[in-house]
């Protein structure tokens, strides 16, 4: 699943617990949900900037729109995506950190330290966000490019049930993002005009 979708899911779930959590705990839950992908996303952003700089001119709105609909309707990835994913493989440290942060044992260890040594509820929530809304969701949605969820005890990827490259998964992610955006808009309207909403 794409990194922004993990964040959307975290926001949606954190609203369920809005009466039980403080503001910083919502933030830590969101951060935990996106954190395992940060090394890869960072490497990807570096490569994306390099790719854009090599273009004779910046892509226009119509080109972005055309790429978006090609991806949405036909499952065709834009050229930038191909360049990005092929180049990220050269970042060995980012790849290793990405796999390390996708290990359930790393997060269980941090969770134990958070509960019994640091006594930090925020750090606990950070770990639960990573475990449930990142690792578990990634396992379900990664038959290709699966992660080593039980590393270092099992040094092989564990595929899930649906391909990360399935265009229907992307459409589902768009639906989640749309629901998240509408919910966020509703919350903003409630704050701006509490009497009406």
Structure description:
The protein has one domain (3-192). The protein is mainly α. It has helices at residues 3-16, 23-34, 38-54, 61-74, 79-88, 92-100, 104-116, 121-141, 167-192. The longest helix has 26 residues, at 167-192. Helix 1 crosses helix 8 and helix 2 runs parallel beside helix 8.
What labels describe this entry?
69% helix; single chain; 9 helices; 197 residues; mainly alpha
What Rg is obtained from the alpha carbons, in whole angstroms? 19 Å
Query: Quick one: how many beta strands?
Result: 0
> Distance N terminus to C terminus?
33 Å
What series of H and E elements makes up the topology? Answer: HHHHHHHHH
Q: Please, how many helices? A: 9
Share of helix among residues? 55-70%
* Shape label: globular
What value does the average pLDDT take?
A: 78
The main sheet comes to: none
Structural class: mainly alpha
Number of domains: 1
Contiguous uncertain segments of 5+ residues? none
Relative strand content: under 5%
């Amino acid at each position: 699943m794409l990194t922004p979708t993990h964040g959307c899911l975290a926001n949606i779930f954190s609203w369920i617990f809005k009466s039980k959590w403080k503001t910083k705990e919502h933030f830590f839950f969101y951060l935990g949900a996106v954190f395992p992908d940060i090394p890869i996303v960072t490497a990807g952003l570096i490569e994306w900037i390099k790719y854009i700089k090599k273009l004779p001119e910046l892509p226009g709105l119509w080109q972005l729109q055309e790429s978006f609909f090609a991806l949405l309707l036909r499952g065709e990835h834009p050229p930038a995506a191909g360049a990005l994913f092929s180049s990220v493989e050269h970042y060995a440290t980012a790849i290793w950190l990405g796999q390390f942060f996708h290990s359930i044992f790393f997060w269980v260890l941090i969770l134990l330290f958070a509960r019994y040594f640091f006594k930090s509820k925020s750090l606990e929530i950070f770990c639960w966000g990573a475990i449930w809304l990142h690792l578990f969701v990634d396992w379900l949605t990664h038959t290709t490019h699966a992660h080593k969820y039980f590393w270092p005890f099992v040094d092989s990827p564990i595929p899930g049930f649906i391909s990360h490259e399935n265009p229907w998964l992307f459409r589902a992610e768009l639906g989640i993002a749309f629901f998240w955006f509408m919910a966020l808009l509703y919350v903003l309207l409630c704050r701006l005009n509490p009497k009406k909403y």
